[in-house]
Specification:
Blueprint: E1 20-24, H1 31-43, E2 48-53, H2 55-64, E3 69-72, H3 73-78, E4 85-88, H4 96-112, E5 116-118, H5 121-126, E6 137-139, H6 143-150, H7 154-159, H8 161-172, E7 175-178, E8 184-186, E9 191-193, H9 206-219, H10 224-250, H11 255-267
Parallel strand pairs: 1-2, 1-4, 2-3, 4-5, 5-6, 6-7
Antiparallel strand pairs: 7-8, 8-9
């Protein structure tokens, strides 16, 4: 475990010490994404998580996660400057209102320079626009999303994962987490290939958990590349640990936050 180190955990602290994540996630068909990404912020050590979403989604998620704060999307946009990190895209949907929300959030972040994590539908929306990303952004595409972002074929991404990750980092001036069975984490000056994980992670919702973990670590003042690298490791190792109890067949994405503490304790 010498390669990985958890963020410092000061005893003289409060919830603000460990960062505040504002999560724009969820839509009518993807309520679970809002829950999984938000709970993972807190399970990875983030001190405060707020979900900015629609009323029906908030009503459902709040019954599962009373520890979070809940805002309308408009309230979220108006309060961005009060947060440490913004997470956007998990189950966001591709309706026009989601596209407008994404653009408004990115423009707000550009004015504040707050670090951000962009996942899932946020990446699909990004691939359709020419909007400039702010500094300190982490993107978390799977190969098909990467192909859309680079305007190439899926086969081109799969044929050169490391090269594709480098191209994404260069194009968007960001840290890239290119998700496969051997996820590639790439910044301008660093590249790392994660060697943990198994087929248990090939389940709907798994990426939402990863995005939340990375956002939670980023909120604890970790540099973007290190937060991405550690987040990918914790996510993949958690899948391995959960599989020991549940098998690779039966692990659900919702099991990952439950087992995450075991991967953290191995490092500690």
């Amino acid at each position: 475990m010498q390669e990985y180190k958890m963020p410092n955990r000061e005893q003289d602290s409060n919830k603000g010490t460990f960062g505040k994540v504002l999560n724009f996630s969820g839509s009518r068909n993807y309520i679970g994404a809002a829950y999984l990404s938000t709970v993972s912020v807190l399970k990875s050590g983030g001190g405060f998580a707020a979900l900015a979403s629609e009323k029906d989604i908030i009503r459902t998620v709040s019954t599962l996660l009373p520890e979070a704060v809940y805002l309308s999307r408009k309230e979220g946009i108006n309060s961005i400057k009060s947060y440490t990190v913004v997470l956007i895209g998990c189950g966001l949907g591709l309706e026009q209102k989601s596209k407008n929300l994404f653009k408004n959030v990115i423009n707000k972040i550009n004015n504040t320079q707050i670090p951000a994590v962009i996942d899932a539908d946020g990446l699909n929306i990004l691939s359709e626009t020419n909007i400039k990303l702010p500094v300190n952004v982490i993107i978390t595409p799977h190969p098909l999303e990467a192909a859309r972002l680079l305007k190439v074929k899926l086969e081109d991404i799969l044929a050169d994962l490391e090269g594709s990750a480098k191209k994404l980092t260069e194009k968007y001036n960001c840290v890239t987490v290119l998700k496969t069975h051997r996820t590639v984490i790439c910044s301008k000056n660093n590249l790392f290939v994660n060697k943990h994980g198994n087929s248990a992670l090939a389940k709907a919702g798994s990426g939402d958990v990863l995005a939340g973990i990375i956002a939670g670590l980023l909120a604890q003042k970790m540099p973007a590349f290190e937060a991405a690298k550690l987040g990918v490791y914790l996510h993949s190792r958690t899948g391995e640990i959960a599989s020991e109890d549940l098998s690779e067949y039966s692990v659900l994405a919702s099991d990952l936050p439950i087992y995450l503490h075991k991967a953290i304790k191995e490092i500690l």
